[in-house]
From TrEMBL:
Taxonomic path: Bacteria, Bacillati, Bacillota, Bacilli, Bacillales
Record organism: Salinibacillus aidingensis
Pfam families, A to Z: NifU_N (PF01592)
Record's protein name: Iron-sulfur cluster assembly scaffold protein SufU
Top-rank taxon: Bacteria
Domain NIF system FeS cluster assembly NifU N-terminal: 10-130
PANTHER family associated with the record: IRON-SULFUR CLUSTER ASSEMBLY ENZYME NIFU HOMOLOG
Length: 148
């Protein structure tokens, strides 16, 4: 597949997650983690909710406002971490952070799914904070959960 075709495919994946976000909404009940973060540079904001049971992310939902990069990244992130252990979710976050900074990544067989579509954001440093907002919220949430 040529670079232009791959670039077009990745843009389509990003726009699909933006227009049809996965896991948008709120979790029922009160037994979950809630994290609010924003990017004051551009106004993106996210309200992330995580259900963590026995060291595993059993559910994840988000609400928020922002650009297509931040909202599609939140959609992709919630899809990627559901069903994963907290350690696997944090590993995914580290891989994503490296990828978004333009570093070569080795997934060691870990399925990163649609997340790969955001790799091109590394060429636009001003957009990196948009792409990482939901991931930083998740890291904060599971970090707080492990302290309890």
């Amino acid at each position: 597949m040529s670079f232009n075709n791959l670039d077009t495919l990745y843009r389509q994946v990003i726009m699909d997650h933006y227009k049809n976000p996965r896991n948008r909404g709120t979790l029922e009940g009160e037994d979950h983690l809630s994290i609010d973060m924003n990017n004051p540079t551009c106004g993106d904001r996210i309200h992330l909710q995580l259900q963590v049971e026995d060291g595993k992310v059993t559910d994840a939902k988000f609400e928020g406002e922002g650009c297509s990069i931040s909202m599609s990244s939140a959609s992709m992130m919630t899809q990627a971490i559901k069903g994963k252990s907290v350690d696997e979710a944090l590993t995914l976050s580290n891989l994503f952070s490296d990828m978004i900074q333009g570093k070569e990544i080795d997934t060691n067989g870990l399925d990163i799914g649609d997340i790969q579509a955001l790799e091109g954001v590394s060429k636009f440093p001003a957009r990196v904070k948009c792409a990482t907002l939901a991931w930083k919220a998740m890291e904060q949430g599971v970090g707080e959960d492990s302290k309890e």
